[in-house]
Amino acid sequence: MQAGARPERMQFGDRRPFRWTFAAAAVALVALGLYGVEFDLGLLVGERARGNAARFFEGCWPPRTDGPFVGPLFGLALDTVCVAALATAVAVLLGVPLGILGCRAATLGSLFVTGDIESSWLHRGLYLAARAVGAVFRSVPELVWAMLFVRVFGLGPSPAILAIGVAYGGMLGKVYSEQLEAVDPRPVTALESVGAGRAAAFAWGILPQAFGPMASYTAYRFECAVRASALMGLVGAGGLGQRIQFSQLDNEYAEIATEVAILMAVVVAVEWISDEIKRRIA
């Protein structure tokens, strides 16, 4: 290269056009959304909205703190955590097989091998089926799943547990498969070079590397399940969510303040425990 000459730009080195296009598309999408829902800022900051907000916050203070009311709330908080724990267990039971079957290295044998292993129609079918089932599970929000399960099981914690478990199972399956495919291929190729089969290479080369990230993401999903289980009060799942709904229907704002405060404390405690677990796993 001659002195003073500018180095040639790489073909895909300049990302500025893409960034500007992405930013313009995002702005256009937001503008279209505001127009589509007929968003009116005046409804949020108008006189009526300010008056309703003032009455709500005045009603919340002071929160209700008498023993006969507060005592049972801790039991309801425990019910909320139990629903979240059972729902996470259901999600793991669904997500693990979906993640393994949806991983190309495990099902198709095409991620690390050199091409000497051909996938059968059964392997390809399992892979596509796992991907499709996971997409269906996570494409429907847990609240919609809950409404569907209420038709089968009636009101109670069962539809809430299944709704969160099915929706989160699809999410776990997708993330598990991505984490299984993102491992270092060198241990796997070393096992394959000494004659290890697909199952052995997966069990001893892929899974140990992906276990930490998979466990960390599962702990995060449990945090989300605790918050989601509070919404399941709409389907009679019990817990704090249903108690907040009753207080809201009775316009008992002081009760709502106490119930929301306890829910926030539970969520913070669960997140702290989850962070400790993830730190120790890492």
Protein model, in words:
With 282 residues, this protein is an all-alpha fold. It has one domain (69-281): MetI-like (MetI-like fold, Orthogonal Bundle), CATH 1.10.3720.10. It is built from twelve helices and no strands. Helix 4 packs across helix 11 (239-249), helix 6 (121-139) crosses helix 8 and helix 9 (185-193) runs antiparallel to helix 10. The chain is globular and about 75 Å long. It starts with 15 loop residues before the first helix and ends with a helix. Mean pLDDT is 82; it is low at 1-12 and 110-117.
The CATH C-level name is Mainly Alpha
- Sequence stretches where pLDDT stays below 50 over 5 or more residues: 1-12, 110-117
Q: Architecture, according to CATH?
A: Orthogonal Bundle
CATH homologous superfamily grouping: MetI-like
Please identify the structural class as seen in this structure.
mainly alpha
What can be said about the biggest beta sheet? Answer: none
SSE order, one letter for each helix or strand:
HHHHHHHHHHHH
Query: Could you estimate the helical fraction of the residues in percent?
Result: over 70%
Mean pLDDT: 82
* Radius of gyration computed on alpha carbons: 25 Å
Strand content: under 5%
Number of strands: 0
Count of DSSP H/I helices: 12
The domain count comes to 1
General shape: globular
Task: State the end-to-end CA separation.
Answer: 47 Å
Task: Briefly note the CATH topology name.
Answer: MetI-like fold
